[in-house]
Specification:
Elements lengths: L1 H22 L5 E2 L2 E3 L3 E6 L2 E4 H9 L3 E11 L8 E6 L8 E9 L4 E4 H4 E2 L2 E3 L6 E2 L6 E10 L5 E2 L3 E6 L4 E3 L4 E10 L6 H17 L3 E4 L2 E6 L2 E5 L1 E5 L5 E6 L3 H17 L3 E6 L14 E5 L5 H17 L1
Parallel strand pairs: 21-22, 22-23
Antiparallel strand pairs: 1-16, 2-3, 3-4, 5-16, 6-14, 7-8, 7-12, 9-10, 10-11, 12-13, 14-15, 17-20, 18-19, 20-21
Length: 317
């Protein structure tokens, strides 16, 4: 159980690391693509996510919707695994060739340019007359489509879609299915925070087999409002709950303070708020519920030790 829990959290941390890597790129849009194995998938860093997995990241507050991308879908079965094909508008066979054509104005004969070429000169295959001047003797309509099955020549072939289930439909009958485009949530964690979470995970799962560790943890303040906590630790024996949040500046703290207090009261939990070099009124919160931990000028190892000490104090109370 310990190894499984550790593996799950390591996977979650890897996902968070991929999100940070993606956020640091010039274009942080996360766009859906059609994957032949996963169906609709999203690539974050080096990881491919299915749509179900990406919705879970959205639920956790790690991603924000910023737009939509539409995919052509079969109107019969809604499959988005489709091929676009050009077929003959006369016989509906997929036997088309696209070639350069010539039309002889006098006899109104049209065919491939290769059929008019004879001894490096243009001669009409129908009436055998020599064609000298373009625009007077003959015209060049450009590349057209010729069906090798029925001989039909057309400028515009019929466009059809064939889905994974072999349903064939005209393109103007096709449905569109839209999937969200995402970007990384602005409240995403830093690489330092991730390293600290890794250390805490390893320590507590090894030292306290009765603990459950989650990162991140989504808290629902009400049916429409949720809050993402970077690290959650609970004791299955004593039912103690500890939330650890990392807040970067005073403005962010002001935005989150009431939410944190609400979480502490609703869930009867203890919250440790990690702050960095800014002043918070110590009387703002009841220290029995919410503890402030200033990590200014401390490295990853020092931050981890401070947090371990604070968490162990709560666990032993």
């Amino acid at each position: 159980m310990e190894n499984r829990s550790s593996t799950i959290l390591e996977t979650q941390i890897s996902i968070l690391a991929s999100l940070i890597q993606e956020r640091s790129s010039k274009d942080d849009k996360i766009i859906p693509t059609l994957n032949p194995i996963l169906g609709i998938s999203y690539k974050i860093g080096e990881i491919d996510f299915s749509y179900e997995q990406i919705k879970d990241l959205e639920e956790k507050g790690l991603l924000q919707r910023i737009g939509l991308k539409s995919f052509v879908a079969c109107p019969i079965c809604s499959s988005i695994i489709v091929n676009l094909n050009l077929v003959c508008p006369n016989c509906k066979n997929q036997s088309l060739e696209r070639k350069e054509f010539i039309i002889h104005y006098e006899c109104n004969y049209i065919d491939e340019m290769s059929k008019f070429l004879k001894d490096e000169e243009l001669t009409c295959p129908k009436c055998k007359k020599s064609l000298k001047k373009v625009g007077i003797d003959y015209g060049k309509p450009g590349k057209l489509y010729k069906c090798s099955s029925c001989g039909e020549i057309s400028q515009y072939p019929l466009v059809v879609i064939t889905c994974f289930n072999n349903h064939i439909s005209k393109i103007d009958e096709a449905e569109l299915i839209s999937y969200p485009i995402y970007r990384i949530s602005s409240s995403q964690l830093s690489s330092t925070t991730l390293e600290v979470i890794k250390i805490l995970n390893q320590y507590f799962l090894q030292s306290y087999p009765n603990l459950k560790v989650e990162s991140p943890k989504t808290i629902y303040l009400n049916p429409k409002e949720k809050y993402m906590i970077p690290l959650y630790i609970s004791d299955t024996y004593t039912n103690k709950k500890i939330y650890i949040d990392f807040i970067n500046n005073e403005k962010e703290f002001e935005e989150k303070a009431l939410k944190l207090l609400k979480i502490a009261l609703l869930d009867n939990a203890k919250i440790i708020v990690v702050i960095n070099n800014y002043t918070i009124d110590p009387d703002l919160f009841d220290p029995k519920r919410i503890r402030l931990l200033n990590i200014y000028s401390k490295n990853i190892e020092e931050i981890s030790k401070l947090l371990i000490n604070e968490i162990e104090k709560i666990l032993k109370q």
